[in-house]
Design goal:
It is a single chain. This protein has 124 residues and is an alpha+beta fold. It contains three helices and two strands; from the N terminus they run αββαα. The chain has helices at residues 15-28, 76-82, 95-101, and strands at residues 51-55, 71-75. It has a two-stranded antiparallel ribbon with strand order 1-2.
Amino acid sequence: MAKKQRRPDREGSYRTAFEKNRQIVLKTQNICGICGKEIDPRFKYPHPLSPTVDHIVPVSKGGHPSDLSNLQAAHRWCNRWKSDRLVASQRKENIFEENEKENKKIDLPQHYDWSTYRAENTEN
């Protein structure tokens, strides 16, 4: 069994800096760095459009784990879609619009049954 790799932004010396910069990103950015759409802060985890912070250059690819210039706001779903890939021009590749044009169903992460989700955490 392979040993799970530790992430420096979640443990160790970079943790404090990452948390500080994470708060700055979430307060100052409201456009998803991956799809280019607005992020609604009323959505809360585990909603797929809830705000999260993405590493522009993934830590696994040599990106700095806590440098503010390597962090961007993103939708949770977009961040999961990007995973640990390097995406050359992230905003041009609007995954939501592509799926709408082709009438494709957007597959959400399978760890949660979204068919029973109720948006009680949002204001309407």
